[in-house]
Specification:
The chain is mainly alpha-helical. The chain has one domain: S15/NS1, RNA-binding (Helix Hairpins). Helices cover 76% and strands 0% of the residues. Helix 2 crosses helix 3 and helix 3 packs antiparallel against helix 4.
């Protein structure tokens, strides 16, 4: 069953509000990366995951019944937790600096 056009348009707007804008991604990469194209380091990945988690959290404040978004949020939190554990084990100073900059509790 397909949704009417107005429902599809509403859904598209909701999804675009949860996505991170390219400009925001570039700012995060420049702030946490070693250079402008460093997208693979753990620090950048953690920062990008944190941005996505913030966006999903805002979405869930307005749409508490959205089970798919809640599941996605838990998945992202788990990935970020794993990356934080990796950074904490390999570079303690970077870990402390990172959680301070992102305002994470740990």
């Amino acid at each position: 069953m397909t949704l009417p056009w107005y429902s599809r348009e509403r859904k598209r707007k909701e999804i675009s509000q949860m996505a991170i804008k390219k400009e925001d991604v570039n700012v995060v990469i420049q702030k946490f990366g070693k250079n402008a194209v460093d997208t693979g380091s753990a620090s950048v990945q953690i920062a990008l995951l944190s941005k996505r988690i913030e966006a999903l959290t805002e979405h869930l404040k307005n749409n508490g019944e959205d089970a798919n978004a809640r599941r996605s949020l838990m998945t992202l939190v788990g990935k970020r937790h794993g990356l934080l554990d990796y950074v904490a084990k390999n570079d303690r100073e970077q870990y402390l600096k990172l959680i301070d900059q992102l305002g994470l509790r740990k």
